[in-house]
Amino acid sequence: MRMLFDDDEARLAGLKELVRPDSGDGSRRLAERFTDRAVEKGLGDVTYGFAESPFGELLVALTAQGVVKLDYPDRDFDEELEMIAARLSPRVLFSPKATNSVRRELGEYFEGKRRDFDVPVDLSLARGFARKVLSATARIPFGSLSTYREVAAEAGNIKATRAAGNALGSNPIPIVVPCHRVVRTGGGLGGYTGGLDRKRALLRLEGALAQEDSSRA
Question: Could you say which of 179, 183, 203, 208 is catalytic?
Fold first, then answer.
């Protein structure tokens, strides 16, 4: 077995076919052993796994800097992983072990036992003003609401409300970067990358839904 790890290129070529989340239990366990070793040896620039949630299974992807992608179950996970490979690195490995901490914190959050995420985030999939908007959004406290105008101002351009909304609508790390806490300046929920039902559910979980109709102008 050791010889499988003597050549990086051969190792990655084999893993590409072996590491399939939809494999049978035996194949999946074997694949996880391979990928755990590969991750330990620094062969995977991006690792991913799946986390249970009240909304179904979530896709979670990480880089060495932190969580880089989180997707709801109605997204095409294969397409999302291909996008990650194209934009970040083709060295993408399925590794539940590497995503343990994120999955644990998400579970605690959904159970009402966690208010803040400790896992770092990697905003590499956002650029320019959008990244500033998401950085500002990440600072909104649990149970609080902000408005698109306030987030735009925090990002450096109070007039760029629409651009702020677009950035939040394409947030690659919902829940952890809490774009659900941003509502319309004039009142109302506004939009949400995961749909308004999920936005309401998250705000109810945080006890913030009652603030919806009294959001600041």
Answer: 179
